[in-house]
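Re: export button greyed out
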Amino acid sequence: MNLGKMLTASMRSILRNKMRSFLTSLGIIIGVCSVIVMVAVGTGSQAQIKKQIASMGTNLLMVMPPRGPREANRLTMSDVEKLRAESSYLAAMTGEVRLSGTNVVGGPNYWSTSVYGIEPDYIKIKDWPVKEGDFFTDKDLQLRSKVAVLGTTVAAKLFPNEDPIGKSIRILTTPFTVVGVLSSKGSTGMGNDQDDVVMVPLDTAINRLTKDRKINSIEMSVVSEDLMTQAQSEVTTIMRESHKLADGADADFDVMNQEEIIATASKTSQTLTTLLAAIAGVSLIVGGIGIMNIMLVSVTERTREIGIRMSVGARRRDILLQFLSESVILSLLGGIIGILLALLIAYVMRTFLGTPTVISLAVIAASAGFAGAVGIFFGFYPARKAANLYPIDALRYE
Amino acid sequence: MAIIELRGIKRHYVVGDIVVKAIRGLDLDVDTGEFVAIMGPSGSGKSTLMNTLGCLDKPTEGSYVLDGLETSKASPDEFADIRNEKIGFVFQGFNLLSRTSAIENVELPLFYDRSGKKLDQKKLAKAALEDVGLGNRLDHKPNQLSGGQQQRVAIARAMVKDPAFILADEPTGNLDSEMTYEVMSLFQELNDRGKTIVMVTHEPDVAAYTKRIITMRDGEIVSDFPVERRRRAAEDLAAWKKAHDYLAEGTKL
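Workaround output, generated via the alternate export path:
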């Protein structure tokens, strides 16, 4: 008996019960599809995060409060000043305070947005030029001028039909004058609108808005890529001095370079992707159990057929292979449909919902392979049961 | 030449503590070209004998030489090969694959051919079906065929590999008179052409078409004699049709 004939016979018996075969494969279809989509979305958002952070600027260093729920933020303006005075590798630096969900009023309109208190170097580090007007200067910082630069989203919300430059806006209770509008930067991988922002001089923000000397982070760009390591260790040393930490004491801040920022940012999404893919993987196994269940029913139903086949000369191996090939075909077909469905869903998400998705060939190959393996694993027991029937009993079976 | 040689065949089943002796020491020779009916009441061991002859079951003791081949030591796989090569089965319930066309049913034994010969499956199956008068029903499914036609498909399937003998188990048990005549005349025709046939039946009418009747009782052969006035099923069929037509005419009048 040749393989082609056997596969044809298996195919025929699968097609004989189309609805049942489809429902049997459905578990595998859903399993394969969800594994691929989960991984595609996860990989897509990671790629987006990487791109995002890479676009944040080159040779970036960041000082941030340590992560963890109980860690207090001990970054202050004096850290910024000490770094500026003592570090030798930095091309640009800025302290940063962030007030999210802050009400901003302009003319008759108001809008809840994020207000960043920063220094003029910020747009240099982020490579984020203004579109209209000017960014504020170091002088504005010294004078604690009440000037603001708007992101395009905020500009559109507050001044839909007019030029915002020169207009007055109110942040919390303080009036500011708009001096510029930033160019558009689009949204982040997580879907946050980066243009939904108002920027004011750091010192103004500290004095007028937050009213303490705490800052959220310090961002720096290093003169050249070769000096990243030295710069990072120098910044760490200066920060430890600034915080008067004894040798060997735990740091109460984090200094991260770009790669570490990427790693941190994508860690959550990576964990989530792995988790979701694992859950989807479980559904593949459940799908396999569904196949086993139906194959067992099918063996019982077709006992007579097995008897007939044996009486005309089928060996046990022939029966085993026939049922095994049926379950493998079922799961492989399910796998293929699942892959096609996943490609379609990923395409729809990317095109119509704007969710970044990256389909990797490795994941497709792995899930197709896994589907096949599920077919063999869960098909073997029913197939063996069929092959071990006694011809006489099978022929007499009613 | 003996195609079937049974010597000292015993078949004992153990059911709980009881040993059931279905066949208790049986010798039998069947020569090429014979047409044998095995008769006997239920429990006489004829089904067990039939399973033994069909290489579906192994005797507890004794030797069975089929077409010069000792089968007592055969493995399950070798048994499968013997069934494929040497034996053509015809069952009471036809045992065709449902939802599978006549020609595909007939192809089934060729499907499991392991002789390595190049076989034109379609051609052989078609020839076998033409041989039983179903050349125009190749693609009919069993549920589109009458009982007699289904049994003829089964006979075509039994014949397609040109086996050493045909083993028929109550082949007319599910058929009415007309179909019984049809099937038996086909068997007689095959036998006339030299095919050896062993048939289990409990109907004396049907046994009367064979050449030799073996009667079993309690796991032993109690009688074995040639059929003296052998009936021709084809003639009976013609007579039945004539009577049937006559009756039909009568009712019309």
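The interface with chain A takes residues 51, 54, 56-57, 76-77, 80-81, 83-85, 89, 91, 95-97, 99-100, 108-109, 111-114, 157 of chain B (CB under 8 Å). The button fix ships in the next patch.
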